[in-house]
Amino acid sequence: MGKALYTKIKTERASFSITHEVPVIMIGSCFSDNIGNILTRNKFNILKNPLGVLYNPASISDALTRSIKNTAVEKENLIFHNGLWHSYDFHGSFSHHNPEIVVSEANQCIKNTHDFLKQAGVLFVTFGTAWVYRLSENGAIVANCHKLPSSHFTRERLSVDAIIRDWNEKTKQLKSFNNQLKIVFTVSPVKHLKDGAHENQLSKSTLLLAIDELIKRNPENISYFPSYEIVNDELRDYRFYAEDMAHLSETAVQIIYERFEKTYFGSPTIQLSGEIEKINKAASHKILHQNTGEVKKFALAALKKIEKIENNFPFINLQSEKDHFKQLDK
Description:
Blueprint: E1 24-28, H1 30-41, E2 46-48, H2 57-69, E3 79-81, E4 84-86, H3 99-118, E5 122-127, E6 131-135, E7 141-142, E8 153-157, H4 160-177, E9 182-187, H5 197-217, E10 222-224, H6 227-234, H7 250-264, H8 267-283, H9 293-312, H10 319-328
Parallel strand pairs: 1-2, 1-5, 5-9, 9-10
Antiparallel strand pairs: 3-4, 6-7, 6-8
Helix pairs in contact: 2-3, 2-4, 4-5, 8-9, 9-10
């Protein structure tokens, strides 16, 4: 046997399983979007980053508190900058030139998250950075600076103890709201190079130490998925990064997802997910000449696969894929 050329990160089977019926919520950095997009595509019952991408533990915690309490956004809390109305607590995707739309859409998302979180089986929390920005006027931590001048903010790195104190109470609040909820932490392997290489490492270390202590305090309900370690130890090569050398490539995301599958899915779920993935690939297949016998045969075969899945798993919604293939079968 040849000598191993890389460090293999061990991932053990989780003490609980995720199926297509289990409501899963993913919140945090853009890494939550990466895995969440695959789960969405494979028709899992998932809500991903409903309040937008969030990076630091304090802002993620505040978003969960707002969702649990169903606390509405008020128009008076918005700010106006560069022709748009913004909320410091929400991602820029919620910003709009009409403040009423910002408030309406934000509050609808809060209500949706409140309802989903109440019956969720698993909550995945992805910390991206321990660095935060505080408003100079009152010291409040913001989730998004919305490109306001730096003079409006002060920058600091959260301490390990501060994160532990906040999230120790947050996990209690979550369990009180939904006592069936399992909480899984992960640290995003995406590099925050704008903080500086050394500062990025200090930040990630802070997050890892805080999560480790939280798990020690509540090992039955809190666990950890090592996405950060998989990238930094197994995939230690820049070919697994995008062109900016900070975000992950599609290959890296797919490798992590495969480890995610083995950790949280049983064999029937993996098989069903694979069948749905085949339908997804067929639906994305480029059709050069639509009105041909081969295309109709291709579409009919896909429709039969969809019908089989719908009959066996009526909770799976493949309507958009069905509509696509029906158009090809005309």
